[in-house]
UniProtKB/TrEMBL annotation:
<feature type="domain" description="ABC transporter">
    <location>
        <begin position="1"/>
        <end position="214"/>
    </location>
</feature>
<keyword id="KW-0813">Transport</keyword>
<dbReference type="InterPro" id="IPR012340">
    <property type="entry name" value="NA-bd_OB-fold"/>
</dbReference>
<dbReference type="GO" id="GO:0016887">
    <property type="term" value="F:ATP hydrolysis activity"/>
</dbReference>
<protein>
    <recommendedName>
        <fullName>ABC transporter domain-containing protein</fullName>
    </recommendedName>
</protein>
<dbReference type="InterPro" id="IPR003593">
    <property type="entry name" value="AAA+_ATPase"/>
</dbReference>
<dbReference type="InterPro" id="IPR047641">
    <property type="entry name" value="ABC_transpr_MalK/UgpC-like"/>
</dbReference>
<dbReference type="GO" id="GO:0005524">
    <property type="term" value="F:ATP binding"/>
</dbReference>
<keyword id="KW-0472">Membrane</keyword>
<dbReference type="InterPro" id="IPR040582">
    <property type="entry name" value="OB_MalK-like"/>
</dbReference>
<keyword id="KW-0067">ATP-binding</keyword>
<dbReference type="GO" id="GO:0015408">
    <property type="term" value="F:ABC-type ferric iron transporter activity"/>
</dbReference>
<dbReference type="GO" id="GO:0055052">
    <property type="term" value="C:ATP-binding cassette (ABC) transporter complex, substrate-binding subunit-containing"/>
</dbReference>
<keyword id="KW-0547">Nucleotide-binding</keyword>
<dbReference type="InterPro" id="IPR015853">
    <property type="entry name" value="ABC_transpr_FbpC"/>
</dbReference>
<dbReference type="InterPro" id="IPR003439">
    <property type="entry name" value="ABC_transporter-like_ATP-bd"/>
</dbReference>
<keyword id="KW-1003">Cell membrane</keyword>
Length: 333
């Protein structure tokens, strides 16, 4: 399978620990050579080239800096190592330091700075070169204070927009991935399951794991059969797109109906509806999370804070456009 990542894009590699995110990042950088396949930068085959010859910037989970150097010299090091003019180095270091709010510590040695500041220096060293093919980040905000983590993530987005660099960001945190990236690469057990925009991953997960992993809570899934243009879950019949129903019948295998908690809507007074027997209602601030039973399955529904629940349960509708079918975990149609 071929995956094309566009120059100047912001990508996130997302998945649980051990799924292969860092390995894929290291294949891109040249620290690991793939057992099969090729890595192409444009028309150039770089599969066997070293990281230096690939012209890659990389920022690791824990800061890699020179403690005995000043902050300025740490930021300048990648440029001096390539013989850049000192005037250019000064302008470039000051520019990146301004972006990362490091101007006030440029003359200080790095050894006495906080972990947060050291990681900002590490980020700056990855970003200071203008000529890199890409900058790769391996969970770079893990050691950062939570409030500063949000600020730095926003700052990286601003830097990406200003500098038009290709950025690839590894994380297991869906919030980081969805707020940082133009496109998210969802991985599981060494495989890329889906590459898409945050909206596409939310609205049309290509795999049940993507639906489960993206969202809070994740997508509802129900084992089902298909009868005509309806998914049958126990004694519940849910209308689905006719073309998707036909594709599901042709695919065979284990069939599942999937729908987001946010996309199940309360039924109107005169609408045909499904009744959810409510087990629990959680007030999560700006919305209510309802957990209940439907057709012998647990189901989650996300309601507006003003939503109401009848004494006998919650009457809901599954909109046809939002009810998806999966065969052996893969989206059909």
């Amino acid at each position: 399978m071929q995956h094309v990542w566009e120059d100047g894009g912001a990508y996130a590699l997302l998945g649980p620990s051990g799924c292969g995110k860092t390995t894929l990042l290291n294949i891109i950088s040249g620290l690991v050579e793939p057992s099969e396949g090729k890595v192409m930068f444009g028309e150039q085959d770089v599969t066997t080239l070293s990281p230096e010859r690939r012209n890659i910037g990389q920022v690791f989970q824990f800061p890699v800096i020179y403690d005995t150097m000043t902050v300025f010299d740490n930021l300048a090091f990648p440029l001096r190592n390539r013989g850049m003019d000192e005037g250019y180095i000064t302008r470039r270091v000051n520019h990146i330091a301004g972006m990362l709010s490091l101007e006030d510590v440029l003359k200080r040695r790095a050894n006495n700075l906080t972990a947060d500041a050291k990681q900002k220096i590490s980020l700056g060293r990855g970003l200071v070169r203008e000529d890199v093919a890409a900058v790769l980040f391996d969970e770079p905000l893990t050691v950062i204070d939570p409030h500063l983590k949000w600020q730095l993530r926003r700052k990286l987005r601003e830097i990406h927009e200003q500098l038009n660099l290709t950025l690839v960001y590894v994380t297991h945190d869906q919030t980081e991935a969805l707020t940082f990236a133009d496109k998210v690469v969802v991985m599981l057990a060494g495989q890329v399951l889906q590459v898409g925009t945050p909206q596409a991953l939310f609205e049309r997960p290509a795999h049940t794991f993507v639906g489960y992993f993206i969202g809070s809570p994740g997508m509802n899934f129900f084992d089902c059969e298909v009868d005509g243009s309806e998914a049958v879950v126990g004694d519940i019949r849910v209308p689905v797109d006719p073309a998707m129903a036909e594709a599901a019948r042709n695919a065979g295998g284990r069939l599942q109906l999937g729908i987001r908690p946010e996309l199940i809507r309360p039924a109107g007074a005169d609408e045909a509806a499904h009744l959810i027997k409510v087990d629990k209602v959680e007030d999560l601030g700006d919305y209510l999370l309802v957990t209940g039973q439907l057709g012998g399955h647990e189901v989650h529904v996300r309601l507006d804070e003003s939503g109401t629940i009848d004494s006998d349960g919650l009457r809901v509708v599954f909109p046809v456009d939002n009810a998806l079918l999966y065969a052996d975990d893969k989206l059909v149609g």
